[in-house]
Automatic annotation (TrEMBL):
The lineage of its organism: Bacteria, Pseudomonadati, Pseudomonadota, Alphaproteobacteria, Maricaulales. Residues 440-534 form the Peptidase M1 alanyl aminopeptidase Ig-like fold domain. Residues 221-435 form the Peptidase M1 membrane alanine aminopeptidase domain. Pfam families: DUF3458 (PF11940), DUF3458_C (PF17432), Peptidase_M1 (PF01433), Peptidase_M1_N (PF17900). Its cofactor is Zn(2+). The keyword Cell cycle does not apply. It comes from Algimonas porphyrae. This is Aminopeptidase N. Residues 87-182 form the Aminopeptidase N-like N-terminal domain. Gene3D superfamilies: 2.60.40.1840, 3.30.2010.30, Neutral Protease Domain 2, Peptidase M1, alanyl aminopeptidase, C-terminal domain, tricorn interacting facor f3 domain. Belongs to the peptidase M1 family.
Length: 864
């Protein structure tokens, strides 16, 4: 297969001002008639995209074309000879009920829905399926009235009524020209949750959330999040909503989280529905951020879209940044930043330092679906954050205003975006662009030098950067790295925070002499997506854990210490020795205990301080290494912390016991998070008390956070109680698909005595739905990412099972299959034996001639 390349970009050779589509819906055979008004802008044939659809007829200006007047290939409809201005009428048919890819028009739970980003619209009708072709859409939907009482599309409804044969219709018009990837259509029977929002200019916008019958109460939190998002975007970015109504629809079968279709967002029900009994605090938190994310796309993505898919970070990186800022405002900046960086390190750093590494703006792809990655989203967001750090809040906001003003209604590029900040700041932004071109995570080395001779300037710190090679990019240039730093003494900071913007390989900065012991807090707030290699001693880290005014770095100091302990321990375990009692441990526990007892920190922060670096971070730092040794090192450190802090943990657990009715707010969630951390640490000692606390918590639980937390703790402890608890959990929740997903994921991550057979049995249970992405992600994804012992078994059974499941999914849904396969991206970080085992599986996958999606991932992963 031939890749698509950024350098080959050419504009479409026709202008498509208006598009009209008539859908006659039928699950087996839906007919789509499109009417396009085209005006030529450059010579050449008219080439339209189309896949898996049957062409019925083509008309030009009302004249039926002969079959010889056009060419139809597997992926295109080509008209060689067309006038300069004309109306094109195309009739096609498709079979939504047979569409297992969940791209284009498909049926989920008896309801019609669509997913068009990135290239799904071509599965609906022949059309220029590219983001730079923007058109004003009018959509008529005609369907059986009893089966599909609700008919929705983008924009405003302009007409509706009944037609013969028990059918009815609705006509929708979207006044904002848009690319077809933002098109949506929904039809079916729904319950609706209604509310409204008054915009900054006093317009009242009806808000409607459509869910499966009976689910409306579970959409309340999403509705609340939506209203807060709308208000926040006005406040923080001056962005007002533009259409006359805003709709969200929840569906159960969905390839990813949610989709920002203009005026009609479609959500995976797992990111929309929640109540105390069935959703965890993490679910609530994610609902809030994804509802915000999709809403924010209305400006960053829809009003201003992407010229081509290489510019994906233009909408995704910026929108993630915006949703992170929103969550920071809603839930506390420090805690939010810590969570975002933890996720960045576990997912994006792993990607950026493995075989799938690619720039934030890639230059070629086989399947664009494979580029909805942590790099484009999360690293893309970090680049926006660095811009803000570098330019300052006011200039950053000015640049955003220029962007919204200058590029509204267009399909833009990263260069155009950056030019707005150049205009706002007068800075030369050229050096910053390197972040968009260059893959890989920079290593930032910090060294303090003693210069006792000068009485005035006595301290010098030097920074040097280096980015290791990534596939296809051997040589790296220096990046512009904003470094926020500060000297900290035993009673707090000794100077104001500094911002050093590094542009070369090395840079040296001096600062005043302090005659007291002090440490340097570097990269405060995680001011750049880099891996810090600091010469900080244990004493420095303990000082920062206690005194750093930057909450992120206070947390980070503990993480750095823990990371060092974990890497040493994992290496010791791998070589068959027991870790030496580390002299740093005592001081570390002391600092942890102090934080735990300090009332000035919120509970959510304390919970994060008690959370270890992810296994992925340790794996990357210690690679190549036996992944089971990494996991055992985690158990060892948890046990050590629990031994060292047993009383503190017990007391905190008791103090966090819930009082009053459930509320999903950040403070209440923080209490539950801290309580959960204490319980899980206590369980790491196999403390009999922990087992009884967990059992008690499971019996008493009135919310899913406590219930599943207790269940997971019990499942780690093993023993009799586990099987019966798992069974009663299943019985209790088997009719709630979203909770059943949780059941499968807890099962997938357990240490079953009979190994892989238990997982295979789960995949054969009648409630396991292999065509539902959420269920498959719960079992197969949960297994590959969360069951270190079974997935990485040296007999290769885990890898084989996983590869089988990926191939099984590939037959139905290539984009989900390719995404699952990403779990193998760490293979080069593992020991030689396991590398061989995974290499065999990758070769096996490639040999089966999989989909383009899976082929691209497998080949890139396999390397040259
Ligand atoms: N833009 C969509 C993602 C589409 C993924 C297509 N493979 C959701 C989002 O980022 O908001
Ligand atoms: Zn997005």
């Amino acid at each position: 297969p031939k890749p698509t390349r950024l350098e080959d970009y050419t504009p479409f050779n026709f202008d498509l001002s208006e598009s009209r589509f008539d859908f006659r819906l039928d699950p087996r055979q839906t007919t789509v008639r499109s009417l396009l008004s085209l005006t030529r802008t450059a010579p050449g044939p008219l080439v339209l995209d189309g896949e898996n659809i049957d062409l019925v007829s083509v008309e030009i200006d009302g004249r039926l074309l002969k079959r010889t007047a056009y060419r139809v290939t597997q992926t295109q409809l080509i008209l060689d000879d067309v006038p300069d201005q004309f109306a094109l009428n195309i009739t096609t048919r498709c079979d939504p009920s047979a569409n297992t890819t969940l791209m284009g028009l498909y049926v989920s739970g008896g309801r019609f829905c669509t997913q068009c980003e990135a290239e799904g619209f071509r599965r609906i009708t022949y059309y220029p399926d590219r983001p730079d072709v923007m058109s004003e859409f009018t959509v008529l939907i005609d369907a059986d009235k009893a089966a599909y009482p609700t008919l929705l599309a983008n924009g405003n409804m302009i007409e509706a009524g009944d037609i013969d044969g028990g059918r009815h219709y609705a006509i929708w018009h979207d006044p904002f020209p848009k690319p077809c990837y933002l098109f949506a259509l929904v039809a079916g029977e729904f319950d609706r949750l209604d509310d409204s929002f008054i915009t900054m200019n006093g317009r009242t916008i009806p808000l409607e959330i459509y869910v499966d019958p009976g689910d409306a109460p579970k959409a309340a939190y999403a509705m609340d999040s939506l209203k807060r998002s709308m208000a926040w975007d006005e406040r923080a970015f001056g962005r007002e909503y533009d259409l006359d109504r805003f709709m969200i629809v929840a569906v159960r079968d969905f390839n990813f989280g949610a989709m920002e279709n203009k005026g009609l967002n479609i959500f995976n029900s797992s990111l929309l529905l929640a109540d105390a009994q069935t959703a965890t605090d993490l679910n609530f938190e994610r609902i809030e951020s994804v509802v915000a994310h999709e809403y924010f796309h209305n400006w960053t993505g829809n009003r201003i879209t992407c010229r081509d898919w290489f510019q994906l970070c233009l909408k995704e990186g910026f929108t993630v940044f915006r949703d992170q800022e929103f969550s920071a405002d809603q839930r506390g900046a420090a805690v939010q930043r810590i969570k975002d960086v933890r996720a960045l390190r576990a997912r994006q750093f792993a990607e950026d330092n493995g075989p799938l590494a690619h720039p934030v703006r890639p230059t070629e792809y086989l399947k664009i679906d494979n580029f909805y990655t942590a790099t484009i989203y999360e690293k893309g967001a970090e680049l926006i954050r660095m811009l803000k750090t570098w330019l300052g809040d006011a200039t950053f906001r000015k640049g955003c205003d220029i962007y919204f003003d200058r590029l509204d209604g267009t399909a833009a590029t990263v260069e155009q975006f950056i030019a707005c900040f150049e205009a706002a700041s007068g800075e030369d932004m050229h050096p910053f662009m390197q972040w968009y071109h260059q893959a890989g995570t920079p290593r930032l080395t910090v060294e303090r030098h003693q210069t006792p001779t000068s009485p005035v300037i006595s301290q010098v710190v030097s920074f040097s950067q280096m980015t290791p090679p990534t596939p296809g990019q051997a040589d790296k240039a220096p990046l512009m790295i904003p470094i926020r730093w500060q000297a900290i003494g035993d009673d707090g900071p000794l100077m104001d925070p500094q911002l050093t913007v590094m542009t070369t390989d090395t840079q040296t900065v001096s600062y005043p002499r302090f005659d007291v012991p002090h440490s340097l807090s570097i990269m405060q707030g995680f001011s750049a997506p880099a891996i810090l290699r600091s010469d900080a001693t244990t004493e420095d880290l303990i000082r920062l854990m206690g005194q750093d005014p930057d909450a992120f770095n206070r947390w980070e100091a503990g993480q750095t210490l823990a990371r060092r302990l974990l890497v040493d321990c994992a290496r010791a375990l791998e070589s068959g020795t027991m870790p030496e009692p580390d002299p740093a441990l005592g001081a570390f526990f002391g600092a942890l205990g102090k934080t735990l007892r300090d009332d000035s920190f919120d509970d959510a922060f304390k919970a994060l301080v008690l959370t270890q670096p992810t296994g992925m971070e340790v794996l990357m730092a210690a690679a190549p290494i036996d992944p089971i040794a990494v996991s055992e090192a985690g158990d060892w450190l948890a046990r050590a912390v629990a031994d060292g802090l047993r009383n503190d943990l017990l007391q905190t657990y008791a103090a966090m016991k819930d009082s009053g009715p459930f509320s999903p707010d950040a403070a209440s969630a923080g209490r539950r998070a801290l309580k959960g951390r204490c319980l899980s640490l206590l369980a790491a000692r196999f403390d009999p008390l922990a087992a009884s606390l967990a059992a008690q918590q499971l019996d008493d639980a009135t919310n899913m956070t406590d219930e599943i937390g207790a269940l997971i703790t019990l499942s780690r402890l093993g023993g009799q109680r586990v099987e019966s608890s798992m069974e009663s959990f299943f019985e209790k929740w088997k009719d709630q698909p979203l909770v059943l997903d949780k059941y499968y994921s807890v099962q997938a991550m357990r240490h079953h005595a009979d190994g892989i057979h238990a997982i295979i049995r789960l995949a054969e249970t009648p409630t396991y739905e292999r065509s539902n992405p959420n269920r498959v992600r719960a079992l197969v994804g949960g297994f590959a990412m969360g069951n270190v012992r079974l997935f990485h078994r040296l007999d290769g059974s885990g890898y084989r099972f996983f590869a089988d499941q990926v191939l099984d999914m590939d037959g139905r849904n290539p984009s989900v299959a390719a995404r699952l396969l990403g779990a193998f991206e760490i293979w080069r970080k593992l020991d030689a034996k396991r590398q061989q085992l995974i290499r065999d599986q990758l070769d096996r996958i490639i040999a089966t001639r999989p989909s383009k999606n899976v082929l691209e991932i497998a080949q890139r992963m396999r390397g040259a």
